[in-house]
Amino acid sequence: MGKMSPLVVLLLHVSAVSSDSHSLRYYMTGVSAPGSRLPEFSIVGYVDDREIVNYNSESGRMKPKVKWMEKVDPGYWEDNTQIAKENEAVSRHSVRTLMSRFNQTGGFHIIQEMYGCERRDGGSVTGYMQYGYDGGEFMSLDTQTGTYISTMSQAQITAQRWNRPEAQMGLRNKNYLETECVDWLQKYVENGREDLERRVQPQVKVSGQKKGDTMMLHCQVYGFHPRAVHVKWMKNGDDVPDYETTRTLPNPDGTYQIRVSAEVIPKEGESYSCYVDHRSLDEPLNVVWEPSNPSVWVTPVVVAVGVIILLAAAIGGFVLYRRKKAGYKTTSISDTSSSNLFPNAAKA
């Protein structure tokens, strides 16, 4: 598994509508100061945007976060609890090490790691492993070459140590991401397919807000699953070139929402519409905005595949840091267990 931070998780942004891909991600987080309202150490695992496992230094146990994770082998939880405890001990050491490298003698400091793998449409596989310290990018694994790239000068010692021929940490973790991580992803998807691949059609609302001589058009799309969706404004059947879009955000019930806005100057004979394409729809929606009717709602007939299970609201409770990238690496793991979720790693 990997390390994670507790601020706001900006999960990987997906804009494509076709989404038979699945991802497995882990976040590890270690903090220097108790009493920060954060556990001293935590691990959170996700399949797609679904939190599946959680460990923290307060509970001292690796725990399932979705019902279908209970289908794993009986020894899974004990094995991975012990591995998590090993990582917790190494995290404490690494926090102290990095504070020393940054000439810090006290205060609140945080180390993070995010790693995982994704199987995309067509069967291609990709992996990633990224590290952070105090909200900045620290180091990452180049999965093409199997070497670590330092982003901060203080990371050069760690990168050089892990890149040594006798260590081969990068090649070992590259192999983990492209094989064992993908194997686990496949197991989890099989166990949770009904939940992960259910389809819920979006609800759409278009509205207009007067701004001087212009009109700000809003298209709110919500209540859809899976996450991938394509939303845009159109004028007389052509794309509006300039528009603003929010990130696709999770709802407490496991569905998603997004808003797309465009500033226009409506003229006689012009027609504006919000185009929405999603896997749950037989055909894309094209919801027309009428100046005489400031708000228009469209709720398609919902055809859900599988049972809608409540999504843990904790997705919004963890964040890597200011950017999409994340994490800092401080794991010390044995890879002998068949239920090992963690890649090979070492102290900073």
Keywords:
348 residues; alpha+beta; elongated; eight-stranded antiparallel β-sheet; 18 strands; six-stranded antiparallel β-sheet; 32% strand
Brief sketch in words of this structure:
The protein is an alpha+beta fold and 348 residues long. 18% of the residues lie in helices and 32% in strands.
Write the layout of secondary structure elements.
Layout: E1 22-31, E2 41-47, E3 50-56, E4 63-64, H1 76-101, E5 110-119, E6 125-133, E7 136-142, E8 147-150, H2 156-163, H3 169-178, H4 180-196, E9 203-211, E10 214-224, E11 230-235, E12 238-239, E13 244-245, E14 249-250, E15 256-264, E16 272-277, E17 285-289, E18 295-298
Antiparallel strand pairs: 1-2, 1-5, 2-3, 3-4, 5-6, 6-7, 7-8, 9-10, 9-18, 10-15, 11-12, 11-16, 13-15, 14-15, 16-17
